[in-house]
Amino acid sequence: MPEFKDRGVLVAKRNAGSGVNRSVFSKPAKPSGALTRRRLRAYAFDPSLSIKLETWRMNQVTLSVPWEPLGIWDGKRLIPGPVGDYVEIVDEDPATGMAYPAVNLDDPELLATDGLPASEIDPRFHQQMVYAVVMSTITHFERALGRTSLWAPRWVAIKTDRGKVEWRPEYVHRLRIYPHAMREANAYYSPDKKALLFGYFKANDHQTGAIMPGSTVFTCLSHDVIAHETTHALLDGLHPYFTEASNPDVLAFHEAFADIVSLFSRFSIPEIVRAEIARSRGRMSDADLLGSLAMQFGSAIGSRDALRTYIGVEPDPGKIRGTFQPHARGAILVAAVFDAFLGIYRSRTADLVRLASGGTGMLPAGDIHPDLVERLTQEACKAARHVLTMCIRALDYCPPVDLTFGEYLRALITADADMVPDDDKHYRVAMIEGFRRHGIFPQGVNSMSEEALRWERPKFSRKLEECLDEAIAAVEGTSRSASGRGARGASSDHEYVQAASVPDRLTRRGREWTAMERACAIIRDKLIELLADEDDVQWQLGVCVGRGAHGSVHTTDSKGRPSFQVNRLRRSRRLGPGGLEVGDYVLEITQKRDGYFDPARQAKADKKGARPSQVRPESGRDFLFRGGCTLNIDMRSRRVRYCVAKNVLSEQRLQRQREFIGGTEPRLGIYSRIPDRETFAMLHRC
Amino acid sequence: MAKKPSDPAVHVRMYRVGLGDCFLVTLDGASPFHMLIDCGMWEGSAAAKARMKQCVADIAKVTGGRLDILVVTHEHWDHVSGFSTGQGRDFFDRATIGRLLVAWTEDPGNDDARAIRNSTAALRMSLTRALRAAEQTGLRGLADEQVLHINGVGKNLGTGAVLGASPSDSFDWIKSRCNASPTTEVIYAAPGKSVAIPGARIHVLGPPQRLAALRKNDGGAAGRTSGESYFDADSPDALAEALDNGVTEALLFAASGRMHRPSAYKGRWPFTHGDGGADLATARRTDPFLSAIHARHREEAWRSIDRDWAASVSSIALRLDRFTNNTSLALAIELEHSGRVLLFPADAQFGNWSSWNDVVFPEHPDLTASDLLRRTVLYKVGHHGSHNATLRRRGIDLMTSPDLVAMIPVDEAFARSQPPNGWNMPYPALLQDLRTRTRGRILRADTGAPPPSSVDAAVRRRFSRAVKVTPACVKYSL
Questions:
Q1: Residue A498 pairs with which residues in a beta bridge?
Q2: Are A207 and A62 within one domain?
Q3: Which ipTM was obtained for this model?
Q4: CB pairs under 8 A between A and B
Q5: Domain span at residue A182?
Q6: Residue A348 belongs to some domain of the structure
Q7: Is residue A347 classed exposed, middle or buried when 0-12, 13-18 and 19+ CB atoms within 10 A define those classes?
């Protein structure tokens, strides 16, 4: 009989003889609906700061995450454990052959004390912290995007009646989280398992004094690492093709974006911002702790203080041309965004500093006034929240494949201009300046001005818009039940009790997925019919179908014609700071084409009229080349507002990808021997 | 008027051992001067033993049993297997060896070298332990392709229990054989050293003496050294530690099966306080929460991580493999009169190559690595033409001589058949660049004869006269 005793300071009461933790929800009762938030204690950074006089106090924080019942329904009762609507934490440690007891966060004693106190030696606290940080990261995303988050589907091979193998997406309801997955200085999101794997290891014997040599470092206790990995998972759910390195920016973007989210979500904890602002006397550029990531991890594997530091980095506009390792290249993008944030903070607080310094702007020596600290903190937190929201929102304005940093800048500017038409706080200028100072320039624009950077409004034929309108109407008609009610708005009381007991597909998120899947199929069928004769529209959408299609383009429809996929249709209701609401459908279309290193073979495969059966995908292509577009369709007028396309027929882009993956100067090609699926495992290991 | 002095005729024989290096450079003179660079191949290449035997017999015939210089570039099976195994041992035992040239990393009197040797030895031992443990468990933790991959890397490093002899045995044997012989001079070559031979000079380019450069395996390491990625401490020591810390222990535990009572393991790392959880298999059956999770997800074996932790063995083995490649002794043979250069970088990777520019040659103060590359007329393609052992900008782009010829010691069919996905050797883009630079004059160990290409007829005629292909070797005469 395993000993799953409760340990630590707080010992939950047990039902005598049952051996099962008592749960407040052991009988699903109708709750009052008064519970909206769950408060959980966590490390603000990681355990290493709790043993330093200077930082221990600010390292203890309490995160507030949306309330949801936790536990797993076994048909009869709710078994307490860290399983919610979005994630399930399974604390198995196969390397040790152990399993650790699941924390019962619904235990009344833990509810009364904001969860377990921070502890390195209690695995249940580890679960609690991972849960709290993952959920708050998800919340940032949902607030910015104005919709619920879905994880990337799993692709499964299904044998059709005719004996052919077809790949279909399968719904994944929860992200699996393993807090103690392996004994390695590594943590990663596994796109294959839809899981986060956190490792643990012994600190190196470097005598830096920052950390005890040989002490155990748990990556699942690092706030930054958890937020970083969760972001990888969320981003993969939004843009599944951003894990395909078709140019040097793609994987770098994944890393950069994960760092951006971990950096800026830190500002949602006012306690640490306040402490750092007081310490640095309001000069954000001296607030080292706020601009550094994974400090304990950094000290434990080498001699540095943090894994990555974005503060005090001098911009070097030439660096991006010679930097290809994804983390290093991504760091340039993060530095650009962080630079923009520092600029925004300075301009937001210049008046406060003048007021506090009698107009000189020079604060007197010594500690600054607590009121000033408080006001500066508010400004910093607000600016950071805005920047984070901007960065996340831009994802809906990115092309579905082959993203470059420059395109991301354009997406950022366009998305923000939609939400905040007059940029009176100069966020967009700050962002443009940040990118410019780090040498990140988009291609195909002739200036870095805001107007030039915004995506153009496309002109589509009436026919296409009618077709989309019709398709959306069909979808809306069949899926009223699944209509989203904004970002994770409180589930109804009824759903709330049932959440753990209904099948995944019938939960709110599950229904949304089902509806989306159906919608995509309808839209695809309608579009294929429409586009067959519309060469211009095909070109605008970046796809190629019908009779004139290239032979290298894949066939995915049952009639064996070249065709495309409609990957997602999501509704997005975004609320701007000025109260402006922008409602969009975000529609994503992608298409595959075989790529060859040898232009002659490419030409042969491309040849018009080549029968698709003769150039089957696996016919020895050298690589996969993708194209497609992201459409933003206005929810009310159903007009296409933006069409961000990457043309599948672009020879220039094909050549660029060829050079990138075939380059002899080591770039990402060096991982070619590793099975692709664990991209992040290798990326983080090497 | 005296005839303008000219170079001796130079013959380079690339032995067709399969995937492996074995080169004989002969400078004609009053008596021919023979220099043998490496002698090894991957076990498992087709008809391996017979081939090696044939090659060694040819070497014996050409040299008459006298090697003026023997170069051993680094301790990998595909470079040293021929010395001590049955096929070559007799020859090398009896041959007269004038000088043995090995990298400074082999120097017993050099502290840095000792440190490197000690730590790689420790890592090798850890890896061996891990792999043995893995074998005992039937490599339960790993997917099939990973098993094969580890076995492959392990074989090259000498970590697997698969082989009777390991590369270090072979390397040690030839070293001690030369050390014991009073007539053999052993030279530990550091970058900047030049060795004079009749009609030519051998310049040493690598391995670099800065340890950091040795640890760089690829361009990505630039990011690594500036602290941009997770696994920073990429030294063999750190890797050994990582292995001993976790993986080996865990593998041994797994190997022991049910013999260990869970309680014996309980309370050990990582949780040393309290009761620290319960045995995994038991908990899955009896713990209400875990059993409920597993009951709900009965179909979800794809999500299990039971095997994931063991993958780090293969990643660590791979890194040791690359590290060893970077300890390659990289040589440039400069012909005295024409200044033409024969470049033998062994398996040097990014860190090794990129350090060459800093090398100063005290005896030839004006000489630079770029200068040598510019004058290169024969390039022994590094690491069998892999993607990461020939630099583009600081390597092949500098080899601008119109007479450039490349020799690739590769067995493409064998390489491509290697698990898990085949090794991409020769790398297509590299091959393309080589074709352009050499105007199609590429010699390969597997296909031998140059492929038809578009060079002009005169060049082609001259080239085909200079090349002779026999079953044992591809010979090119300058």
A1: none
A2: yes
A3: 0.82
A4: 275
A5: 1-10+37-238
A6: yes
A7: middle
